[in-house]
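Re: that chain you flagged

S.,

Sorry for the slow reply, it's been a week of failed gels. I finally had a moment to sit down with the sequence you sent. For the record, here it is as I used it:
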Amino acid sequence: MAKKKANIYEFPHPMDNDTVIGHDATLNAFMAAWNARDARPMHPVWMLTGPRGIGKATLAYNIAKMVYGNVGDFFIIDMERNIDKDGKSKPDGKSISVYTVRATIEKMQMSSMSGEWRVVIIDSVDELTVAAENAILKLLEEPPAKTLFLLVTHQLSAVLPTVRSRARVEKMRPLSIADLRRLCARFMPDEVVDDDTLRLANGSFGRIAGIKQSGGDEIYAELIAMIERKNSTATDAMALARKIAPCPELYGILLDAIAHFGLAELYPVATHAIADINRVNLEPEIAIFKVIEEIKKCY
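Prediction finished late last night. Pasting the structure tokens below so you have them in one place:
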């Protein structure tokens, strides 16, 4: 298996990142509700949903800092603050425990020192266990006064309908190529990021680092060239499949290649093959090889 390169990109945590790009519609919608809160009560639960890496958490933290300032209370439920049943830190887990949620609720039961607004960020709802999500639901059914909930979620369909129904859902769009260029100039000023890499990112700035880190831009170029080459062989296809297989974040370049060649009829084949890699524990290189061969055959 290919070794991943050492992480060479250092991005600020969303809490420390004041750069919000590409989400004016969502921010303006919140500001309109916030500025009119004295005339009409604003919705206490806002769900920011959209693909990973587009800046949902960054926007949530920027809203939170504006709302609570330096006087209110701020509560964060995320993997970094995850705890187990004994109250011990468990930041490397795969899901956010119900114990983390219960501990936060206990803290919230203490009245605010200032009487000002309190903010609760959950980043992300996708990572909550079922028990944790149900615990949050009980809190959302009767939200405390002057408390704003900002729920980050990457896959809206995976959220419990009962939780979703209690939130104002803001669907945040993938970033434009222009937005991605601005972010690259801001956070990766010394890195050459070409147009192909920006397109491969599918509107996710977070994905750009993963693509560059794993050499995905180079592998994609190699994939396109191999398919276009008339004398390429199954051995060439397998060699590429073995480069892609160790990096799940690169599986999407198969779909990008399908789009590049205008082979929309292959989308169901490729998406099912990618899904089956995890669902039925297929050997990744075999599944990827078959997709590449299908693209070659139809090109």
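What I noticed first: The beta strands are 45-49, 74-78, 118-123, 147-153, 168-171.

Talk soon,
D.
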